[in-house]
Structures are given as C-alpha cells and as structure tokens.
Specification:
The chain is mostly helical. The protein has one domain. A two-stranded antiparallel ribbon has the order 1-2.
Length: about 70
C-alpha cells in the first residue's frame, strides 16, 4: 500500500469516527470573535492563547484568525 492511499484511508477513517462520535463530544462554548464581525470562535481556545488570536488577526485577517480558533 502506497503512502497516498494510506493517508486517504486514514483521513476517511478519522472523518467517519468524527461523524459517528460528534454527538458524544462535550459542547463547546462559543463567543463572538473580537475584531472579526460575524464570526464565532471557541471561548476555551481564545482564553488559552489570546495573543496568538490577535497576532493572526493582524497578519492574516479576521477570517483566518477565526478559522484557527474553531
């Protein structure tokens, strides 16, 4: 089995597990993303590293910063 098919199989398996076990996962508290109107981010991720969020917000923009903190 080559590297690419193994990676695809691994990604498919992880996606299937995420789909099946998603309802069991603990609910995530969300918050409005500061400086990114209309975006929601994980409150726990933001509180763990707010400096990284604001760095990303300044350098790559609000959409990418919010996506990194989902």
């Amino acid at each position: 089995m080559g590297l690419v098919p193994a990676m695809v199989l691994g990604m498919a398996a992880s996606a299937a597990c995420a789909y099946v076990f998603w309802p069991v996962a603990a609910p995530v508290a969300m918050m409005k993303a500061p400086g990114a109107a209309g975006f929601l981010i994980s409150r726990a991720a933001f509180l763990a590293n707010p400096q990284l969020y604001f760095h990303l917000l300044r350098t790559v923009g609000p959409k990418a910063a919010a996506a990194a903190f989902l």
